[in-house]
Design brief:
Layout (H helix, E strand, L loop, with lengths): L8 H21 L21 H17 L3 E5 L2 E5 L4 H17 L28 H10 L1 H24 L2 H23 L5 H20 L5
Antiparallel strand pairs: 1-2
Helix pairs in contact: 2-3, 3-5, 4-5, 5-6
This protein binds heme C.
């Protein structure tokens, strides 16, 4: 390029040089984009337990850190409202929220739904639960729904983390309710879709009949 920088072309060349320097300086200060897509993992992920055991031993117990954080208890002294007060109380909620937000993605790792031989309550009359095979088939037919349910759980974890940062007791009540919904919506769809309003109607009628027969006493022959 220098050999061309003579006579009337000099000013153009200087201009070009300035432009090159400016562009280089600018692009030099920009962080280089990470060539790996954000979804790519550093390595392989392998499941240890079934979905059922992941629920029983990780997601369910840790969710209690949030569920138990706020409650209303009626006892002989009246109504007592339990809310987080100390740093330790908030820390427990943060541990719950972090574990749920991160742990939710473990449900994306392919794993059996239940331990071998465990068919859930999917057999016999009035069974309301799907068998692990039926759940797997449903998931394979529409992985988008499964992922959406996982994101919903993760979102409550993120929401709760934000609440912990602001120590907002009022919003913690909402988070606890949202968590309940996120668990329940997935269970209703994948685990016990048989628990429909009709099912509860039948259950109610059965309970009422039972109470009536108890009130009347044992049948006389
Ligand atoms: C993305 C879907 C999904 C979400 C979200 C989810 N679960 Fe589950 N959960 C399941 C499925 C599916 C099963 C039944 C697995 C089976 O038995 O085949 C299950 C089973 C369970 C069980 C039964 C474990 C046992 O030993 O019988 C518990 C308890 C449970 N979940 C608690 C929770 C709680 C608490 C939350 C929310 C914090 C939650 N789950 C969120 C899908 C989900």
């Amino acid at each position: 390029m220098t050999s061309d920088c003579t006579g009337q072309r000099l000013s153009a060349c200087v201009g070009l040089l300035v432009l090159v320097v400016v562009t280089q300086t600018c692009s030099g200060s920009k962080p280089k984009p990470d060539p790996r897509p954000a979804t790519e993992l550093w390595g392989e992920m392998k499941a240890v337990v079934s979905v059922k055991e992941l629920m029983r031993d990780m997601l369910d117990p840790i969710a209690d850190n949030i569920f138990d954080a706020v409650s209303i208890v009626d006892d002989k002294n009246g109504t007592v409202e339990k809310v987080p007060k100390t740093e330790e109380d908030w820390e427990k909620i943060r541990i719950g929220a972090t574990t749920l937000a991160e742990g939710a993605y473990l449900l994306k790792v392919p794993r059996p739904f239940a331990p071998p031989g465990d068919l859930n309550n999917s057999t016999g009359p009035g069974a309301v639960e799907l068998s692990p095979d039926q759940i797997t088939a449903k998931l394979k037919a529409d992985p988008v729904e499964w992922n959406a349910r996982i994101e919903a759980l993760r979102n409550v974890g993120l929401e709760t983390l934000d609440i912990v940062r602001r120590k907002d007791v009022k919003e913690l009540w909402d988070a606890s309710e949202n968590l309940e919904q996120a668990c329940e919506n997935c269970h209703r769809s994948y685990w016990y879709p048989g628990e429909t309003p009709e099912f509860y109607g039948r259950l109610d009628r059965r309970l009422r009949d039972l109470q009536r027969s108890r009130a009347v006493g044992p049948a006389r022959h």
